[in-house]
Write a structure and sequence with these properties.
Elements (H helix, E strand, L loop, with lengths): L1 E10 L2 E7 L4 E5 L6 H13 L13 H5 L9 E8 L2 E8 L6 E6 L4 E2 L14 H6 L3 H6 L2 E2 L7 H18 L6 H15 L8 H20 L2 H38 L4 H21 L8 H41 L6 H26 L3 H44 L6 H60 L5 H59 L5 H32 L4 H8 L3 H7 L5 H96 L7 E3 L5 E4 L6 E3 L5 H19 L6 E4 L7 H14 L5 E5 L3 H9 L3 E5 L2
Parallel strand pairs: 3-13, 3-14, 8-12, 12-13
Antiparallel strand pairs: 1-2, 1-4, 4-5, 5-6, 6-7, 9-10, 10-11
Helix pairs in contact: 5-19, 6-18, 7-18, 8-18, 9-15, 10-14, 10-15, 11-13, 11-14, 12-13, 18-19, 20-21
């Protein structure tokens, strides 16, 4: 296979991007974010679509949304390639709801999409057809993505896990252990005769039950069998007679072919029959225009009139009942005597509740406690103020004394520290003066608040007394002693009002229904009149008096049309019989040879054959009558026998099902054993071949450093130290060496799986390689590039330089 061209109509960051690929090595270079991985994933998406593996429904991988075009461009692409000497192209529209994939043979121009397998889901996967394996095998062999920065241990474990099923079954969706486990589960689902709840044991019990029921029915089988044999005999006789009838009809056909010479006689007979039919047609011509559609319409109209009559009778009956009820209600009379009174009482009751709620609110908002607190604060602050005034006065006196002493000391020039005392006592006096003034303002404010509360409480008490008077007046107005009695009065009036209102509504409804019935009676009578007019018009148009005469005339019209058809049929037969001749021409042509020709076919007389056919038809009719009699007797006795047939069929089906279950159980058992043996054979045959191929590849790309690779049955890789000959576990090697080993393993596996030289598509797979390893792998790729196409994606210039150093020819594609 050779990939020729990648056309990214809309994919990720690319829009209408075209990449041309060639034989050998194709180096696709681009810096990070240049779109290498996008282009790499485009190849995968075109061949397989972005579907999750191992599920039946269509479910997409995260890559589907990742590469949805950044702009509003169409999500689609085209890939062209050469396969087995022919050129193909895949056109894929990725958009959900518009998914469409076409595969074209460009060599012949034929659309081969219908030959391509869809794989899992409903999205076409051409890769299965052209590569011969599914997407996971594709991704783990020829289509290798960048492995990233995983640790060596995780890297080895991951690749081993992905490849083990491929190498043992050639299908990564199939696991030998899972297959054997599944087979044993299915064997358990079938069960044995001792597993009472499983299908096999249940089926055995069903067979026993049916056989017991069959034996009970067989006692009545003799009588039924005699009628059944009679039916079989009659059916055989009927079949014989039908064969005889078929043979005579064939003979009759031959006679008719041989009787061309009797055409004239037949034509005369036909001519007479046509004349007779024309005479009948003339007599019935007056019925030619009788209308079948109008007959159907008249039937419908007649039925409609009957239906309307029934409706009118029913409506009048209902109207009479309503009139009687209205008359009785008119005598009683209905007036709204409670409405205004209820409105007034309801208003007063609501006012009563509002007054009561206001009173409760006033009680709830009483400020007695607040007055007590304020009085307490007032008393405490008064005490503090008196105390502060004493200190204030004492401090001022001491300050004055200190001031006088200071003046005296200055005059007498005796410098004593008395001035300091003046300052101290003066400051204390000023401080307490300020405190007294502040307390004075606070005390005055508390006094005002106490007075305000007293005033408000007086107002509240006055309002409470007023509310009590209003409540009392409302209760006296309706002669009630309390709220409960007031409420009962209102409820009683409302109930009476509601009952009266119901009667009024019923009265109004009856009046409306009366008007409706009057309108309906009027409408029905009008419709009946219109239908009668239409019906009379139809009778007049068809010249009949009633439906019976209409039906009679229609039968005559059918006879008229039948005679016309028979006449036209006979005329057609006559034309076919005569062909290009006329009766006169045939008389003149046959002349004296007419009787001789008749004699030549006397042993095959047409009338005799017809007579025999009639006799056989009579026999067939008699056989059918006798057969019906036998079948009636069979029906009388046959219910149990029919059940017997059903039981026998059910027993046979159950026995077949038992055999199927036994065969299936045995097949599953054999299959499990065969898979285990086959798996061991595959391991024993496949692993040495893989060892040989991988060792050869590793020896080449490591320049002979490692030439003996050991791959176990579970694909665990180990390496023989070429010096000490000891076995080295792969996890003890460097990441670059592990990459080399698993690259070799992948390449060895794909070469063992398929003969076709498929492309090798690598995305930055050598990032862990040092320069020496890179040189070796590039040299290896150059060698295999002579046999298969290599597409190498990279963000480094090392690969390009290595190719140039080797003097290798390659196609450089630079992504910008």
């Amino acid at each position: 296979m050779l990939l020729k061209e990648l056309n990214l109509i809309g994919f990720g960051k690319f829009k209408n991007k075209n990449i041309v690929l060639k034989d050998g090595i194709n180096l696709i270079y681009g810096e990070n974010e240049a779109g290498k991985s996008t282009l790499h994933s485009f190849i995968d998406g075109m061949f397989y679509g972005f579907l999750k593996r191992n599920i039946k429904r269509t479910d997409y991988l995260p890559e589907y949304e990742k590469y949805n075009p950044w702009t509003n461009n169409r999500y689609a692409g085209i890939i062209r390639f050469k396969y087995n000497g022919k050129f193909y192209r895949i056109e894929r529209n990725f958009t959900k709801g518009e998914e469409n994939t076409k595969v074209l043979d460009e060599t012949t121009g034929v659309d081969i999409t219908k030959n391509i397998e869809a794989g899992s889901g409903r999205v076409l996967q051409p890769g299965i057809h052209f590569f011969g394996f599914n997407t996971r095998v594709f991704s783990n062999t020829i289509f290798i993505k960048q492995l990233g920065t995983k640790t060596d241990d995780k890297l080895a474990a991951e690749v081993t896990e992905k490849l083990i099923n491929v190498t043992t079954t050639l299908d990564d969706n199939i696991s030998v252990d899972k297959a054997i486990s599944e087979l044993k589960v299915r064997m358990g689902e079938i069960g044995t005769d001792r597993a009472s709840t499983k299908p096999y044991a249940k089926n055995l019990r069903d067979i026993e039950r049916l056989q017991e029921e069959k034996s009970n029915i067989l006692s009545e089988k003799d009588a039924y069998q005699s009628y059944l044999e009679e039916k079989i005999r009659l059916n055989n006789n009927l079949e014989i007679e039908m064969r005889n009838l078929s043979r005579l009809r064939e003979k009759l056909l031959k006679v008719e072919i041989l009787e061309k010479a009797r055409t004239l006689e037949e034509a005369k007979i036909l001519s007479d029959e046509i004349a007779n039919l024309n005479s009948k047609i003339d007599k019935l011509s007056s019925y030619a225009n009788i209308s079948m559609d109008q007959y159907k319409e008249s039937i419908n109209l007649s039925n409609a009139i009957d239906f309307i009559d029934k409706n009118i009778v029913q409506s009048k009956f209902e109207l009479e009942n309503i009139e009687n009820r209205l008359q009785s209600m008119d005598n009683e009379g209905y007036n709204d005597i409670y409405g205004k009174k209820i409105e007034e009482i309801s208003k007063d009751y609501n006012y009563y509740e509002e007054l009561e709620e206001e009173k409760n609110t006033i009680f709830y908002n009483k400020e007695d406690n607040k007055i007590e607190f304020l009085k307490r604060d007032y008393k405490e602050l008064k005490g503090k103020s008196s105390k502060y005034k004493v200190i204030q006065i004492f401090s001022i006196i001491l300050a004055v004394i200190a001031f006088g002493a200071t003046i005296i000391a200055i005059i007498t020039k005796k410098y004593l520290p008395i001035g300091i005392l003046f300052i101290v006592f003066g400051s204390i006096g000023g401080y307490y003066t300020n405190k007294v003034n502040n307390l004075k303002y606070i005390i005055e404010d508390i006094s005002r608040k106490i007075e305000d509360i007293y005033n408000r409480e007086k107002e509240k008490q006055s309002r409470i007394e007023e509310i009590e008077k209003l409540k009392k007046s409302l209760l006296e107005k309706y002669n009630t002693t309390g709220k409960m009695e007031f409420k009962k009065l209102l409820d009683r009036l409302q109930i009476e009002h509601y009952r009266q209102k119901e009667q009024i509504e019923l009265y109004n409804e009856l009046k409306i229904k009366r008007e409706f019935l009057l309108d309906r009676i009027y409408e029905d009578e009008f419709n009946k009149k219109q239908n009668l007019i239409t019906l009379e018009a139809i009778f007049t148009e068809n010249n009949v008096r009633d439906i019976q005469e209409f039906n009679y005339s229609l039968d005559k019209r059918n006879m008229y049309e039948q005679y016309i058809r028979e006449s036209e049929g006979k005329k057609e037969i006559l034309r076919k019989v005569l062909g290009q001749h006329t009766i006169e021409d045939l008389i003149a042509e046959l002349g004296n040879f007419y009787l001789d020709i008749n004699n030549s076919i006397e042993d095959m007389d047409k009338n005799q054959i017809k007579y025999q056919i009639d006799r056989i038809n009579e026999n067939i009719s008699d056989i059918k009558i006798a057969l019906r009699g036998a079948e009636e007797n069979l029906n009388i006795l046959g219910k149990d026998m029919e059940r017997l047939v059903v039981i026998e069929e059910e027993i046979e089906r159950k026995i077949k099902y038992k055999e199927e279950l036994e065969n299936k159980y045995k097949s599953l058992e054999i299959a499990a054993q065969a898979i285990e043996e086959l798996s061991r054979d595959i391991h024993s045959q496949f692993t040495p071949e893989i060892n040989k191929k991988v060792s050869k590849i590793v020896e080449k790309i490591t320049e002979g450093k490692y030439n003996n690779i050991k791959i176990s049955e579970s694909l665990n890789i180990s390496v023989e130290n070429p010096i000490t000959r000891e076995i080295i576990d792969i996890n003890s090697l460097s990441g670059g060496t592990i990459d080399q080993l698993y690259f070799s393993l992948r390449f060895g596996i794909i070469n063992s799986m398929v003969d076709n030289k498929l492309p090798l598509i690598l995305d930055d797979c050598f990032i862990q390689y040092d320069d020496s390893r890179l040189k070796n792998i590039i040299e290896f790729l150059t060698d295999i590039g002579n046999e298969r196409q290599v597409i190498l994606f990279t963000c480094h210039n090392r690969e390009k330089k290595a190719l140039e150093d080797l003097g290798a020819k390659f196609n450089l594609i630079n992504l910008k």
